[in-house]
């Protein structure tokens, strides 16, 4: 009779091996947990009206989520290695369920903030555990790679949350409740499925609490910092789009279609996933240059949308920004996983994502402040200029690095 470790090592779906449903259940739990983190996106204007808060509070509510992700990554990033994948996945899904319940009963801003903190921790827990579990459950030489499934569970969840909430807010009764009821039911189903899946981690060290120190690998410092800056700039745009697209459509275009808000953000995150796949065709050499050019083009398109008060440039800008951001993520993670010291690779990945989620949060608050002191249009124009300047600065740095034979994938 196979031992538990033998069963983990057996190919998925073979007699005595891991059940065939295990990988789909983990992917579904990963997906619905990430869905829950972006469900509020098209609902922010409704919360703003019901709870009577300003646009700056919308960006703060969004930023609290990203801060929760950073804290979760740095405190519990190694938890699934210590106690196993399944308990961490179940904890992440439970937090997603709790966040949905909090939003269901929310009646004021502090409750919304608490719900966003829970969402941030759920995302931090599920990202590492879900990716590792899929890697261990799926055959590495199969038709679909585990990394691809993890990518689309992650980014697909982020993309589907706003679209699902937008459609339900427009078509179902109680727009501030129905999306959360659906999210709650789906997360509960995922939790039930996870209870039936086997543990996949063969070596567990036992829980010890230790804050994950930040680590920038000395051997790839210049490439690491450039890719983090480019990807972080793209994440800043994603954060602002997630926080204020609904405000732009309502206040500037006078369009209260929540489905449209969800569609814009859906486009941005789906294209981010596609961009990570494009890196295989582009190659590492020109990747950051292409990403920088894409970010500059996206900033110009978003600024055009603000100046002309039209929707089309915003949608195209969201798509271009997503592609550029995905390319930069693919380059950054590829650089870390292939060129950094294996002993510190996990810490380097955690540092990379901590930078990205910080960039997701902080600029959105800055835009909220600008909206408060001026209005949405000039705030968007100033932010677009800042994005273009950051991308241009990295382009100049890449050119200088090539002249000295340093970095840029060379």
Q: Would you write up a description of this structure?
A:
The chain has 410 residues and is mainly alpha-helical. Helices cover 77% and strands 0% of the residues. The chain contains 15 helices and no strands. It has helices at residues 4-9, 22-38, 44-51, 55-76, 79-83, 85-105, 109-137, 146-171, 178-194, 221-252, 258-282, 287-308, 312-339, 345-373, 376-403. Helix 2 packs antiparallel against helix 7, helix 10 packs antiparallel against helix 13 and helix 10 (221-252) packs parallel to helix 14 (345-373). It starts with a helix and ends in a 7-residue tail after the last helix. The model is unreliable at 1-16 (pLDDT under 50).
What's this model, at a glance?
The protein is mostly helical. The chain contains 15 helices and no strands. It is globular and about 55 Å long.
- Summed up, the helix count is 15
Overall geometry: globular
> What is the helical fraction, as a range of percent?
over 70%
Gap from first CA to last CA: 52 Å
Number of strands: 0
- How would you state the average pLDDT, rounded? 88
Strand content is under 5%
Radius of gyration over C-alpha positions, nearest whole angstrom: 21 Å
Structure class: mainly alpha
Q: Topology of this protein?
A:
Elements: H1 4-9, H2 22-38, H3 44-51, H4 55-76, H5 79-83, H6 85-105, H7 109-137, H8 146-171, H9 178-194, H10 221-252, H11 258-282, H12 287-308, H13 312-339, H14 345-373, H15 376-403
Helix pairs in contact: 2-6, 2-7, 2-8, 2-9, 4-7, 4-10, 4-14, 6-7, 6-9, 7-8, 8-11, 10-11, 10-12, 10-13, 10-14, 10-15, 11-13, 12-13, 12-15, 13-14, 14-15
